[in-house]
Structures are given as structure tokens and as C-alpha cells.
Description:
Layout: H1 15-26, H2 31-35, E1 41-44, E2 61-73, E3 80-87, E4 90-96, H3 100-106, E5 112-117, E6 119-122, E7 125-129, E8 132-135, E9 149-152, H4 157-160, H5 166-180, H6 190-195, H7 201-209, H8 214-246, H9 257-266, H10 273-285, E10 293-298, H11 304-317, E11 321-325, H12 329-343, E12 350-353, H13 359-371, E13 376-379, E14 393-399, H14 406-413, E15 421-426, H15 432-438, E16 443-447, E17 458-463, H16 467-479, E18 483-488, H17 495-512, E19 520-523, H18 529-540, E20 546-550, E21 562-567, H19 575-582, E22 593-598, H20 604-615, H21 619-630, H22 655-671
Parallel strand pairs: 4-7, 10-15, 10-16, 11-13, 11-14, 12-13, 14-15, 17-22, 18-20, 18-21, 19-20, 21-22
Antiparallel strand pairs: 1-9, 2-3, 2-5, 3-4, 5-8, 6-7
This protein binds adenosine-5'-diphosphate and magnesium ion.
Magnesium ion is lined by residues 304-305.
Amino acid sequence: MDPFQTPLTYLKGAGQTRAEVLKKELAIATFEDLLRHFPFRYIDRTKFYKVKDINPDLPYVQVLARVISKQIVGEKHTKRLVVQTRDDTGTLELVWFKGINWIDKTIVPGTVYIVFGKAGSFNGQAQMAHPEMEIYSPANMQRQGNATLQPVYNSTEKLKQFQLDSKGIQKLTATLLGLHAKDIKENLPLYIIQHFKLLGRADAYRNIHFPADANLLNEALHRLKFEELFLLQLKLLRNKMLHTQKFKGNIFGTVGHYFNDFYHHKLPFQLTTPQKRVLKEIRQDTQRGVQMNRLLQGDVGSGKTVVALMAMLIAVDNGFQTCIMAPTEILASQHYQTISTLVGDGFIEVALLTGSTKQKDRRVLHQKLESGEMKILIGTHALIEDKVQFKNLGFVIIDEQHRFGVEQRARLWRKNVVPPHILVMTATPIPRTLAMTLYGDLDVSVIDELPAGRKPIQTLHFFDNQRLRVFGFMKKEIALGRQIYIVYPLIKESEKLDLKNLEEGIEIISREFPLPEYKISIVHGKLKPADKEFEMQRFIKGQTQIMVATTVIEVGVNVPNASVMIIENAERFGLSQLHQLRGRVGRGAEQSYCILMSSHKLSHDGKIRLNTMVKTNNGFEISEIDLQLRGPGNLDGTQQSGVLDLKVANLATDQELLFKARKTVEQIFTKDPQLALPENQVLHHAFETKNAGLSWDKIS
Ligand code: ADP
Ligand code: MG
């Protein structure tokens, strides 16, 4: 039995109560959990600051100070514990807002403490909130082994009541390593360790907790990051391989008259190079007898829909039915319109199925699907209901994939004996590192070039006090016959404020653009769906020149005549949202503009976001910057994914390492797909442990 699966109760010094609290508070239940509760910071405990030298610009510091007095002040939620301390250079005030009673009990006036925390200042007085306190004694200054850097661990107020503050956790970890470090088994092949000059696993664990020096800490981190990324890729790529072996796929052997007719007689433009490449990739995928699982990424307007249609026509040419599933009715009906227009009359029947399809039409449709007469179906979730049966569904396109759950996708699969080929389309480009991880077991296609002749959208940033210029510009555009969006943020936390902004905005716009010369559509989340639809339609038909809206228009409005997108309070939107909004214009032949309005008060990140928008139209570039700003867990479309729960590695900063790990895994599988070689035996272990905390059900 693996000693690291031992419950923590059995660790000397843990005990039943403390083990229970650790489990409850930090989900640390076993030796392994404790071992993998890594420090989130280290401090050089050899250095003490003087009170007069500390200031808010410093990181966490420690000072030696004597407690002079302590006092609980305030009532209810202003209640706090204030402790005055001093060294020979000045006074330092310590404050606690939580766990007051317990901390009060532990602090003894007159005693010298090692006070550890981040300095702030309040009315010119140096202050620390919730510092860690340790009674100073020469014995306390002794360090663990030969470590010069001391680990700081996450803890909670509750744990602190059981002497499990950072220090307490440190002691347990030291005990564990002392007893069991020798049992930590290597899990990477020796030749890889040698090739990349990695620290051994046991050494890595020792040094991530108690680094002998900064160098070894870095090496430990490097090793554990590599291990994490490597094992993740190993699982993803093995999954992909198993998948390929397990699922047969329909063979689309021929390109027939539907495709050829469309290509030669109906396609109104030349395909771009990436569009051709993607079609070729799909062609290859669908001739191998293996189920295709492909992700198609491309900016709004890059021409994904045409590619999808042409791939569908190939499926039809081979006797199969196909469908597109979109996340909203608006998107579904838009696809329906686009595709109906592209194929024209009398070529092939295309049907739309959504929640609002009438019962009567629905029955007819169901029959046509069951008999196989209907070949191309476009719809929403309505299309995966059990009532909808296909005769021979061979190819499925899922638009905007992250809105569909695993279960929903699985239901599509079950609609045929041989699972249909799947193409997932997304207009939210994500960085390569994320794609490699989130969709590591999918094949990825990219359309990274817009159709020729399209004028890039010009993006400008104006401050609120330059509004008059913007109005002037709007009038000029309207005089040229163009239409304009004005978008206000709608962020849940401050819905009231947002509504107020919107209302004020509407008032100003209505005054500046009065009837009868100007007509305005107003769309926001508080409208009834029917009213919303009515207002949208007025704009779509060109009956109004301005659409004032909250972000409801983000998805799925297509008005080629709209050439200006004005985004109010642009600093409050995330990058990908700004990019999506901007994608609403630039759909026609005219030069389009995106105008970002903001106040002068911009945060550091806010500035970067707006500058990025002004600088580039490329969604992939924007997603890379978004990743740097927000970190991997917060990008749109990634939140639900457990795959990103990496413990040591960071997809934003460890890109190179990820590429290395991925490449190494690919090489291993090329040479030894079954991992049968003796030197790769050690890798089998990876599939038996939960190690990187992954869930494997996410794609299929
Ligand atoms: P996406 O779905 O990627 O947002 P669409 O497929 O809706 O993009 O295409 C956007 C617009 O560009 C549509 O009007 C489409 O007809 C047009 N389009 C697509 N591909 C080309 C091309 N190769 N050349 C010119 N126009 C194109
Ligand atoms: Mg589209």
C-alpha cells in the first residue's frame, strides 16, 4: 500500500481533532494531501526589518517588536483588536478584525514577538493587519534542517485555533518529510530526468517545502511543474489515442454533386487560405474510419459558417444527415438565414428547430428527420431532445462550444450507432497553451485570417469629456446612411447603477439625436422578449439608426450596415468581451469603427486592455494578453474546466515548459504507443492515481 494514502490521523503530532479540522478546512486528509499543500510564499527568516524601515511598498517582512498594550475596540462589524508594539526605532500597530477573542488570549503584553506580515499605514502610523505572531526565543530562530527560506502555508482562522497556523502546518510537514521522504517514488522515466536535468521527485518535494537555497527552490518548482504538465499531456494524448481506437467513424469517401455544385456555382467568393486548409483537415479526418473530434477556432467574421456548410454538404453527398447546434435561438436562426441564403432556393432543404418551433411544424419535421428526407437541420438544445430521431446522423457541428455541457454532447452521440463526426466551432479564440490543455484531446483547426478586401475595424479611445467630438462623428456616419451601436455595461453586482447609466445615456442620446430626424432602438435585459425582438428588428431593418443597448447584443446580431460600435465605460469590460462586441461591426463593405469611451480614471489593467484593443484586431493576440492579465482560470469559456486546476504550473507563465512537455509526450507515444518499453513502465502509474486532479469526462 502507498504510504502516502495513509490518513493524516496517523501522522505523529496530527491527532484526530486536528486531522479532522485540516480535512474540513483545507481538504487535507492524507499524507499525500499534506505533502501537496505547497507553501504559497517563502520568507528569508534571516532578515529582520526595523520598524522605521517598513513601508507599504515592501513585500511581507518580519520585525522583532515588544507588545506594549492591547485593546478590543468598536462594536459589531467595526469590532477589532488593536495591539501596540515597539522596537528601538518606532511603534507599529497591529490590527485583527477576525478571530479577535482567540488572538487576544494568546498575546501577552511585555513579550517580544516575531511579527510577520505586510506593512500598511494608517494616518501616518505604521500598521499591520492580521500578522502572524510568534513569541521570540533563540530556539524559535532555529531553522528546519539547512533551510534558509521559510515556507509560508495557507491556513484559516479556524485552523489557527488548533495551532495550525502556517507554523503549525510547517511542523507537521517537517515531521512527514522526516519520516517518509525516502518513500517518495520517482514517477518520470530516468532518461527524461537526465535529458531535462530535473531534480529527483523526493528532492523536489523536500526543497519545495524547505528549500536549502533559492536555487534549489527554483529547481524543485521546475521539476514539479514539468511533472504536472507532462502527466497532464500524457493523459490527454493517451485519451485521444484510446478514443481513436474505440470509436469507429463514418467514412465520407466521396465529394459529390452537392459540394461541387455549391463550390462551382453558388459560393459567392474565393475561400481564404485558412478556410481551405480547414476543409482539407476535415476531409482527411472523415476518411480515416475514425470519429472526428475537431475544434475550429476563428474570430467573428473569419468565415467559419461557410466552412461548416461545405463540410455538411460533403456529409450529405455521402448519404448522411447533419445538424448545427447553436446556444441561443438568435444564433440558430441567424445560422439558418445565412445558410439558407448561401444555398439559395431549390438546392437543398434546410430546417430550423428551436424551442419556439410550432408543434405542428415540429411533427412534420420529426417525420422528415426519421425518414432521412431532411438532410440539414439547424437548431438549439431542442435538437437533442429524445423525440428528435435521425435516420442517419453523420456529422454534427456545435457552435460556441463552451455553453454546451458534456451530457448534452453525449446525447448527440447516441443519435446514431456509429457516433457522428463532431466539429466544435468557437469565436472566442483562446491561447495555444490553453487549447493544448483544455482541448488537449481534440484536434484543433484555426482560421487566423479574415476574408480579403475587408477593411480592418479602426479602434479609437476617447475620454468622457471628448463626447461632443464623438457625437459629431456619429452624425456624419448617420448622414452617410450607416447605423450605430452604443453599448453600456451590465454587470450584475451593480445592476442598479448600470441601469442608471443606461437611462442617463438614453436621455443624452435622445436629446442629441432628436426625432424625427433620428430614430433610436433601445434594448436591455429588463425588456420582455417580444419587445426586445421588436426593437432589434427595427434596427435590423434599418428603421432606426442608433441602437442603445446593454450587452445583450453581444451574441448574434448581424447588421452589415452597422459600422460604428461605441462602448461606454469600456474600462469595465473584459478584453474578450470588448473584442466580441467589436466584432458586431466590420461586417459590411464600409470602413467600420469601434469607439471606446472611458473616464480618465483607469486602473493599470484597464489601460492595458484599452490600449490592446486600439492596437490589434487579432483575437488570438488579444487572448494571449487576456491570459497574462487574468490568469488561466478566468478566461471566458474556461471556468467550468477542472483541467485548469493546476497546482504548480501556470499556463500563463509556463508556456515554454508546456510545449516541451507536450512534445516529449508526443515523442514517447510515437515510439512506444503502449508504453511497453521497460524504461516507460514507470508511466503506467500515472493513470492509476488522481495526481493532477483531472476529470476525464469533459470531451466525450
Ligand atoms: P463567422 O461564423 O466565422 O463569424 P461567417 O461565416 O458568418 O463568419 O462569415 C462572415 C461573413 O463573411 C459572411 O457574410 C460570409 O458570407 C463572409 N465570408 C466568409 N468567407 C468569405 C470569403 N472567403 N471571402 C469573402 N467573404 C467571406
Ligand atoms: Mg458565425
